């Protein structure tokens, strides 16, 4: 009975994080961009510091008509938003936020490969949306998504593999148990590669070619309206939470902090995740979109060699330490 209660509590915690943190990131993006770009609207909606902006967006999406194109593959079209969103919930189940088994939904022995594989599944939602919409612009956005996934999945996996080599385990809690603070400069290149490749997989600026609204309307999501469109937006913010949380666990020590001990472990995890999420928003405001050729060149000529160099360095350090 205690085991069942423990599982239920863990699932409730994961669901709470999944439902709350993406909305917090969405609200923060409104505010940060409003400050950086001098946008007055998001600063004043609802009175004090624009607290009702997110509520207004939710009501707006709920009021919009749910339209399905006549020539669309209806079942695939309707299923695509769920396929884009649910993989991030599965990642959160395996992502440790504090010390001890109670701070993670489920301990997966090959946790690194599990979370990366599941994150890749989310891209299928964009491919399904592009193909099922019966719209050439949507199809073009879906094909760009596929090309971007192929280009950036490899450096992301190689960067994560260097941390697994250093810790001697593929388990996420095991990596945190083996973590030492001198790993931060040692794995810095891998962390940068992982974070940049993750942004590209999430199609976040400056890697938002698949949803380049000024060129192909809104990519694979052009034909979506109302709550279905809102689910794709929620998937984007959930992806930010997952990417920043995973970067924190792999490269920044997760729940390890300079003070507070294990009792404040979850606080350090959330704080580091929030700082990285702010960086994601900052990059959106600061850098223009890359061209398609620049996007591919960045991956194959820079990120992949850097990730391989990080793996080689990790191997040398491990041999010297032994």
Q: What does this entry look like structurally?
A:
By secondary structure, the chain is an all-alpha fold. The chain has one domain. The chain contains 13 helices and no strands. The longest helix has 36 residues, at 2-37. The chain is globular and about 65 Å long. The model has no long low-confidence stretch (mean pLDDT 86).
What's the arrangement of secondary structure elements?
Layout: H1 2-37, H2 41-44, H3 53-63, H4 74-94, H5 111-132, H6 136-167, H7 172-178, H8 183-186, H9 188-201, H10 213-216, H11 226-251, H12 265-286, H13 292-321
Helix pairs in contact: 1-4, 1-11, 1-12, 3-11, 4-5, 4-11, 5-6, 6-7, 6-9, 6-13, 9-11, 9-13, 11-12
Described by its quaternary structure, the protein is single chain
Task: Provide the succession of SSEs.
Answer: HHHHHHHHHHHHH
The count of domains is 1
Low-confidence stretches: none
Radius of gyration: 20 Å
Q: Judging from the principal axes of the Cα atoms, what is the shape?
A: globular
What is the strand tally? 0
In short:
The chain has 322 residues and is an all-alpha fold. Helices cover 72% and strands 0% of the residues. Helix 5 (111-132) runs antiparallel to helix 6.
Keywords, please?
globular, mainly alpha, 0% strand, 322 residues
């Amino acid at each position: 009975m205690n085991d069942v209660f423990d599982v239920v509590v863990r699932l409730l915690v994961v669901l709470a994080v999944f439902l709350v943190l993406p909305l917090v990131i969405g609200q923060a993006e409104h505010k940060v961009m409003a400050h950086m770009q001098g946008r007055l609207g998001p600063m004043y909606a609802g009175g004090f510091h624009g607290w009702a902006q997110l509520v207004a967006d939710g009501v707006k999406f709920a009021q919009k008509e749910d339209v399905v194109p006549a020539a669309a593959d209806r079942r695939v079209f309707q299923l695509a938003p769920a396929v884009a969103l649910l993989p991030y919930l599965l990642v959160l189940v395996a992502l440790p936020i504090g010390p001890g088994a109670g701070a993670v939904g489920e301990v997966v022995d090959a946790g690194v490969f599990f979370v990366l594989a599941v994150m890749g599944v989310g891209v299928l939602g964009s491919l399904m949306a592009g193909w099922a919409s019966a719209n050439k612009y949507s199809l073009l956005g879906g094909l760009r998504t596929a090309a971007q996934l192929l280009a950036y999945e490899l450096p992301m996996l190689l960067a994560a593999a260097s941390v697994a080599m250093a810790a001697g385990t593929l388990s996420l809690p095991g990596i945190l148990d083996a973590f030492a603070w001198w790993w931060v400069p040692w794995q810095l290149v891998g962390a940068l590669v992982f974070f940049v490749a993750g942004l590209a997989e999430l199609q976040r600026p400056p890697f938002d070619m698949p949803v380049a609204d000024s060129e192909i309307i809104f990519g694979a999501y052009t034909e979506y309206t109302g709550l279905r469109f809102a689910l794709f937006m929620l998937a984007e913010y959930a992806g930010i939470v997952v990417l920043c949380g995973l970067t924190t666990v792999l490269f920044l020590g997760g729940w390890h902090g300079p003070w507070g001990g294990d009792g404040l472990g979850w606080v350090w995890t959330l704080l580091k995740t929030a700082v990285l999420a702010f960086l994601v928003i900052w990059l959106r405001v600061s850098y223009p979109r890359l061209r398609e050729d620049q996007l591919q060149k960045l991956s194959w000529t820079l990120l992949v060699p850097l990730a391989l160099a990080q793996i080689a360095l990790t191997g040398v350090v491990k041999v010297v330490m032994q």
